[in-house]
Design goal:
Length: 110
């Protein structure tokens, strides 16, 4: 496993960080909004956000005095997908079967 993948899986190891990623799936959030969702201190959530940022799973941008965080979903999907493809090659086959099945027109039942 590459260092990058190790960083991602380490970041995913903590339930708070996984919840932050789930919260960000609907769009950008301010750091204060993220902190308000947890029963933890601001510095604790800030450390979790830092781990996620270092793993490349979230990005941050400044807007005046606020820091806004966004999910980098494609990085997460590619990393986890690559790992699963390595340890479960049948997942690739199953994915292709599902793609073909969903692209077929459905028959109309009378």
């Amino acid at each position: 496993m590459t260092d990058s993948a190790s960083d991602i899986f380490s970041a995913l190891a903590h339930p708070t960080r996984r919840q932050i990623l789930q919260d960000l799936k609907d769009g950008e959030m301010a750091a204060g909004e993220i902190v308000a969702r947890f029963n933890a201190t601001g510095p604790t959530i800030s450390r979790h956000l830092s781990v996620l940022r270092q793993a490349g799973l979230v990005t941050e941008r400044r807007d005046a005095n606020r820091i806004l965080y966004s999910l980098v979903g494609e990085r997460l999907a590619l990393s986890v997908g690559d790992f699963l493809s390595t340890v479960c090659p049948e997942q690739i086959v199953l994915r292709e079967v599902r793609k073909r099945s969903s692209s077929r027109p459905t028959e109309i039942q009378a």
